[in-house]
Amino acid sequence: MVNVLMTYDNADGVRELARKHGFDTELVAMKNTHHAKMTELLIGINLDWLRASRGQA
Known about the structure:
Elements: E1 5-9, H1 12-20, E2 24-31, E3 37-44, H2 48-53
Antiparallel strand pairs: 1-3, 2-3
Protein backbone atom coordinates (compact mmCIF):
# COMPACT_ATOMS: atom_id res chain seq x y z
CA MET A 1 0.00 0.00 0.00
CA VAL A 2 1.21 3.52 -0.79
CA ASN A 3 1.75 5.86 2.17
CA VAL A 4 -0.33 9.03 1.68
CA LEU A 5 -0.47 12.20 3.78
CA MET A 6 -2.47 15.29 2.85
CA THR A 7 -4.43 18.16 4.34
CA TYR A 8 -7.79 19.41 3.22
CA ASP A 9 -10.69 21.55 4.41
CA ASN A 10 -12.34 20.31 7.58
CA ALA A 11 -15.72 19.60 6.00
CA ASP A 12 -18.27 16.86 6.67
CA GLY A 13 -18.14 15.62 3.08
CA VAL A 14 -14.36 15.34 3.11
CA ARG A 15 -14.36 13.40 6.41
CA GLU A 16 -17.07 11.09 5.10
CA LEU A 17 -15.21 10.44 1.85
CA ALA A 18 -11.98 9.71 3.73
CA ARG A 19 -13.75 7.23 6.04
CA LYS A 20 -15.52 5.60 3.10
CA HIS A 21 -12.16 4.87 1.47
CA GLY A 22 -10.45 3.68 4.64
CA PHE A 23 -8.35 6.72 5.47
CA ASP A 24 -7.54 7.92 8.99
CA THR A 25 -8.23 11.59 9.84
CA GLU A 26 -7.19 14.08 12.53
CA LEU A 27 -7.67 17.81 12.95
CA VAL A 28 -4.53 19.96 12.89
CA ALA A 29 -3.93 23.65 13.54
CA MET A 30 -2.55 25.53 10.54
CA LYS A 31 -1.86 29.09 9.47
CA ASN A 32 -2.75 30.32 6.01
CA THR A 33 -0.67 32.67 3.87
CA HIS A 34 -2.14 35.64 5.77
CA HIS A 35 -1.08 34.04 9.10
CA ALA A 36 -4.70 33.50 10.12
CA LYS A 37 -5.16 30.47 12.36
CA MET A 38 -7.36 27.73 10.96
CA THR A 39 -8.10 24.04 11.41
CA GLU A 40 -7.48 21.58 8.58
CA LEU A 41 -8.08 17.88 8.22
CA LEU A 42 -4.98 15.69 8.06
CA ILE A 43 -5.70 12.58 5.99
CA GLY A 44 -3.51 9.50 5.83
CA ILE A 45 -3.40 5.72 5.95
CA ASN A 46 -2.53 5.57 9.66
CA LEU A 47 -2.12 8.64 11.89
CA ASP A 48 -1.22 6.80 15.11
CA TRP A 49 2.20 8.53 15.01
CA LEU A 50 0.44 11.91 15.26
CA ARG A 51 -1.76 10.83 18.15
CA ALA A 52 1.30 9.36 19.93
CA SER A 53 3.20 12.65 19.52
CA ARG A 54 0.22 14.45 21.09
CA GLY A 55 0.03 11.94 23.95
CA GLN A 56 -3.31 10.59 22.71
CA ALA A 57 -2.26 7.00 21.95
